[in-house]
Amino acid sequence: MALLRQRNAQSSNAAEIEKKIKRGNALRQGSAWRWSRGSAALLLVALSLCGLAVWLYVTSLDSDVTETLVSRAELVSPQPRVYPVECSDDYQNHKRYPGCTPQKCGRGVTDSIVKREEAEVLRRLAERGLALAGSEGGASILDLHSGALSMGKQFVNIYRYFGDKIGDVFTKEDLQLYRDVRGRIQTVIAETFGLDPTLMYLTKPTFFSRINSTVAKTQHDEYWHPHIDKVTYGSFDYTSLLYLSDYGSDFTGGRFVFMDQNSNRTVEPRAGRVSFFSSGSENLHRVEKVTWGSRYAITVSFTCDPAHAISDPTLP
Ligand SMILES: O=C(O)CCC(=O)C(=O)O
Ligand SMILES: [Fe+2]
């Protein structure tokens, strides 16, 4: 009897031990599973952080901006913000036109002359026009005056190439808006630099641009090189840029940068923002590479030389 009790006690002890072993194993398995899930999550976080760091590094390679003149979030209204700069000698090598040739030089930014809704109408027009073709990479342009539209590695004339279909892309009202906006820009430039607006003329090229992060295939598409508009385009005396999309939400990279002796100063694009400046070498500039999204803008420029004047774009 005692032996039986002892044996019973022994077997219940063994069962107890077995149960403990099983519980221990289950616990170990559970914690191993939890550990592997935890470490996978940690690994994922670490990888994401590494990815973010690489992305930030790559984008920062292009960003040597030392000062932000106007950020995307600011609203410059009702008066333009003006940054005077001493005029370069460039204008002395050209015929002078009193009332127009720059005597005061500098930069100005305003958010109050083009409404965001108007910028949206113009952006849609640019989207429709550029959807007809577009370059293979980098920047694409649509010049409403000459009709030049990037197509692959070249340009086509939209008026000739698309004939009557052009009416599906833009209407008389669209062109009226372009003319209106051009007039407002002319007025603000004349007021800022003390010019007679009737002695300033629209000049070519005047174009819509779309820039994205695809790789440029031709030199035309390399929009990011530092340049002086008066050298690049010849006839320009005053350049303006009307932005049609927002830096930071529609695209990243793509800030406009004035390259001064000791400083790179940026104007961040904002839909409806007009940035304008005298076109000589006092305003050497470049556009940062776009790293994500699409950036739309219109370049509208003025000359003092009537021989380089162009008329506003019209439907054929
Ligand atoms: O789109 C911009 O911000 C500048 C473009 C430019 O520099 C140019 O068209 O000459
Ligand atoms: Fe330029």
From TrEMBL:
Any one GO molecular-function label of the UniProt entry: iron ion binding
InterPro entries per the UniProt record, alphabetical: OGFOD3, Oxoglu/Fe-dep_dioxygenase_dom, Pro_4_hyd_alph, Pro_4_hyd_alph_FE2OG_OXY
Domain Fe2OG dioxygenase: 206-305
GO cellular component: membrane
Annotated Pfam families: 2OG-FeII_Oxy_3
Residue ranges of the TM segments: 38-58
Protein name: Fe2OG dioxygenase domain-containing protein
Organism this protein belongs to: Mola mola
